Amino acid sequence: MTDLFEKSIQTLELPRVLELLAAQAATEEGKDRCRALRPFTDPDDVQRLQKETSAACSMIVLRGTPPLSGVRPVAASLQRADMGGALNTRELLDIAALLRCARSAKEYATGEGNAKTCIDHLFSSLQANRYLEDRISGSILSEEEIADAASPELADIRRHIRASSSKVRDILQKLISSSQSKYLQESIITMRSGRYVVPVKSECKNEIPGLVHDVSGSGGTFFIEPMAVVKTNNELRELQSREEKEIERILRELSAECAAHKEDIAQDYDLLVLIDCIFARARLSDKLRCTEPRLAKKGITLRKARHPLLDPKKAVANDLHLGDQFDTLVITGPNTGGKTVTLKTIGLLTLMAQCGLHIPADDDSTVVVFDHVLSDIGDEQSIAQSLSTFSSHMVNIVGILEECGPGSLILFDELGAGTDPVEGAALAAAIIESARERGALVCATTHYAELKVYAMTTKGVENASCEFNVETLAPTYKLLIGVPGKSNAFAISRRLGLPQAIIDKAAARIDAENVRFEDVLTQLDRQRQQMEKEKDEARKLRREMEESAKTAREYRERLEKEKAKAVEKAQAEARAIIQEARDTADKVFAELNEMRRRQEKEADWLEQNQRRSDLRRQLNEAEDALGSHEDLPVPPPTRPAKAGDTVELVKMGTRASVISVNKDGSLQLQAGILKITAKQEEVRVVEDADGGKKQAVQIAQRAEHKLRSLGASPEVDLRGMMTDEALLVLDRFLDSAVMGRLDTVTVIHGKGTGAVRKAVRDHLKRSKYVRSFRPGRFGEGEDGVTVVELR
Q1: Among 429, 430, 380, 438, CA closest to 409
Q2: Domain 294-496: CATH superfamily, name plus number
Q3: 520-562 pLDDT, tens per residue?
Q4: CATH number of this structure's domain 715-790
Q5: Residues 749/786, Cβ–Cβ less than 8 Å
Q6: What is the DSSP letter of 290?
Q7: Which of 415, 424, 339, 427 is nearest to 376 (CA)?
Q8: Are 4 and 297 in contact, with CB atoms under 8 Å apart?
């Protein structure tokens, strides 16, 4: 990265954005990496970073933020441990915290139901050494305390220490409670040099034999270790020395285990810091209300773009585009009108995108990955180098022109200012033209009217302006691309109270060409305002149309639902009629079964079986016919029905015969074995009653006629029989059915334990009379019967 590029980064205030980014990081090294972030110039790298940020945003929405607090640098500690050094408790606790974060982060990303993202591999690469984590956490309670469970030896030593301490304190407590307490300065037990002592008055020091360990500052108190506890105190010191050695051994052992996993721990640390940086970008994206930009090869398109360092509630969002239809944008307008902010917004959002950051703009914004983003913005006056403002700017511009080329974005603020207006304008146009010839995209701000004309007359160069409200004498900060800025000096002066005579004198000094140019700009601005008004009206009409279309869609969906309900209701009524017909048929079948048992002649019984089979098949056809008429279109209105006509019930799609017409105009209908009363509007006359598809009710009518002539049933009832007996009866039944040329018969065996059912179906598989068989349907007895089709 060149010095000019780095200088432009500072000028465009990217470091301030990176400070905002660092504030979102959880780890110290993550914060440092955020501050050190610089734009990437490879489109593949930028695309990868953008996708990582988007993935982190999605994960935060669905799962929250990964647990990364507590991650501290451990590289130096691992290096010392690898060289054989013993780490202190603080360093070991930092390693344990790192391993804990790695484990938690791994669990965070591998939860059940989590969608796959492009950063999953970072989480899956974490090692998460649970054994070492628990070993350190179980051994070290805090920086100052090692747990008794760190080793059996340490637990034993501490048990003896507690016993010895208790023994010493008991002896000293007896001394305090004895007659010798009068020699004590205070009735307390204290410690000096790690040994238990009692405070004795200086004048009584010889009354309590022992070792003097300390004397108070005033000399009035001697801290004496009585001879009765010297031996126990010595044992206690030995135990404490053993404890220190055991703790050192434990720390060395833990350090050695950390050294053995040095590479995995170091990798976990690097991955956690990287994850921290990615999620910091995601959190900043949410804070600034950013979106992921698309990468384009040619043009920048920023929709509702805002400067990230301005208050989002006050910043004016602008649509900006450059590099597609034109490669140079010349922005004009009054001072404090927002030109420089617009310039910085283009540059800063481009740099943010190349750093992998989302940008504060609406969806469908595009950016270009540039090799260089070079800017000349602000007051470059240098007293130290004896350079004027113009000279400082020119030194900077010379460097930019030497470095720019294809893949460069150049930002000029007040190009050509600080010198003679005529020469400055000519020089500014020449500089822009030179940068364009080198293949760079250029965005410049200016006050010169000559550059407005240059932009209007040069292909590939476009005017833009920052709007100014003359009524309020305040800028609106709204960017208008395609419209050059108009000078508002006279209007502002008039509003501020400058006499009209002075304004007229000033106007007289302007040549006619400039007056005409300003008049053209005034006319253009008036036309623009009119177009904006019409555009707002068109937008309002479009919203109204969209709302109307939405209302129409909802109404259509409501009609579809009502139609579906009506069809469902009609089908339910039709099925009820069929079911009623079936119930009636079942009653007739029951009567026929009774008649069959009274029959004496086999021939009559076989004939009745055949007729019974035909009836059941016709009823099944009636039910199937019902399903095939669900979607038939409603026929058009017909003439009023009269007696003898065949009509169709509209709601059910069922045909019936008109028996008679009642006095009130309603019809008495015969639908199969059922008699129905219906209104004229509920039926349609069928002129060709014999044509087309057979209706379910017609079949039911024919079935009713046959029912009346039946005398037996094509069924055999095997319920209550043993298996052997049932198979004998079944064979006789099949013989009779075949002789009677029946197509379909029904074997009733019941459900029960299933033994008879299994035996019957196994026997049917082997029978030469049987073509196929199936369990009964709903209404036929279901699994309690078997319907057999004969050859």
Answers
A1: 438
A2: P-loop containing nucleotide triphosphate hydrolases (3.40.50.300)
A3: 555 566 666 677 778 878 888 888 888 888 888 888 888 888 8
A4: 3.30.1370.110
A5: yes
A6: -
A7: 415
A8: no
